[in-house]
Amino acid sequence: MQYSLAALLRNALSGNTHWSPAWRDPQPKPSYDTIIIGGGGHGLATAYFLAKEHGITDVAVLEKAYIGSGNVGRNTTIIRSNYLLPGNTPFYEWSLKLWEGLEQDINFNAMVSQRGVLNLFHSDGQRDAFARRGNAMRLNGVDAELLGPNEVRRLHPLLDLDNPRFPVKGGLLQRRGGTVRHDAVAWGYARAADRRGVDIIQNCEVTGLRIESGRIIGVETTRGTIHAKRIGLAVAGNSSRLAAMAGMRLPIESHVLQAFVSEGVKPLIDQVVTFGAAHFYISQSDKGGLVFGGDIDGYNSYAQRGSLPIVEDVMSCALALFPSLGRLRYLRQWGGIMDMSMDGSPIIDRTPIEGLYLNAGWCYGGFKATPASGWCFAHTIATGQPHAFNAAYRLDRFASGHVIDEGGKGAVPNLH
Predict the structure, then answer these.
(1) What does CATH list as the number for 24-78+182-251+343-400?
(2) What's the pLDDT at 99?
(3) Distance between CA atoms of residues 64 and 41, nearest Å
């Protein structure tokens, strides 16, 4: 069913009895041309673009739980393309452009809100670093504005700009950045892929990969064996588990990243604001709750829950920036399993096993990359070659030393 004003009026007058399911619930077939393991944003977007851009519709998306149960529903909804390095800038800018046309493309209200992303800085050295980043962005056709303290104060009067420990000296603003409703992204891509003939199979956990003579031929699942010519792994924090089934050891670690939401209040913060003196970011949802997050938990884990030290750290950062939030109550938190790569940048590439493709290592950037990740992964699977946008995201770059170290800190295993 095409969503439209006419469809809304027609169903309103008929007691809403003529809406069709958003997507089918098919039984898995014995074989497919392509299988995508992982029914999150990246996996669903990949299946959608395989069908739309490459005409490959004999595709199954296998999800071990239900659509939206993984990281696509467990994040802080931020989108942006304010990256510095050549390997990242064109990719994330392409993703932001896809976000801008997403709702018309998939015929679904994903609540794309380009309210702006403001990265604060607190020292002269940070200002120089942000000026460099902003210049690199503008040289690549990406919007960026370097603001002084008075301009920041006009945007966010509740900020403690004169904090004695962390005085705010300005910020780097990308006005095209913002937020998107995360669960709507999952539902929208699932519906759009289904409309193009993709089978979305929920509650179907992959328990093994079938490989013969160096080539992938299928998967073992809790719902039986399914064969395929090509298989793509897009399972975020569980990438190391799936790769181990194929005898591969990936240069990633799995960590928990927590997010939090407060009780609903009247409009206070109309942009995404990040703290330059610590890892903290905050925005306000359409329901009025303040959504914020910070660092990953320091230990490796596959569990979707977090620890109390991160709660304390994130709340301390919130009060350092916005002291007036001290009387708010935070209502709930959730955790997603991050697949942290050794250089902080992702992997979209072929693997040494013929027919097996990998989409992993997204660290903190997974949600904002969803459209471009699916677009590039679909291109790589369909053609057997990377697109220019993901050419730098090679799996073998860790062996060759061609890393994409956006943070400029070098590899820091166990301490991202």
Answers:
(1) 3.50.50.60
(2) 98
(3) 14
pLDDT digits (tens, 9 = 90+) for 309-333: 999 999 999 999 999 999 999 999 9
Token output for 338? 């991050």
Note the CATH architecture for domain 253-268+282-341.
2-Layer Sandwich (3.30)
Please say whether the beta carbons of 352 and 394 come within 8 A: no
How far apart CA 41 and CA 22 sit, in angstroms, is: 16
Angle, CA 327 vertex, CA 321 and CA 333 arms, to 5° = 80
Which two structure tokens, joined as six digits, stand for 152?
């920041």
Q: Considering only CA atoms, which of 287, 283, 282, 289 is closest in space to residue 318?
A: 282
Count Cα atoms within 13 angstroms, Cβ side, for 370: 31
DSSP string, 108-157: S----B---EEEEE-SHHHHHHHHHHHHHHHHTT---EEE-HHHHHHH-T
In the block, residue with structure tokens 């609540």? 111
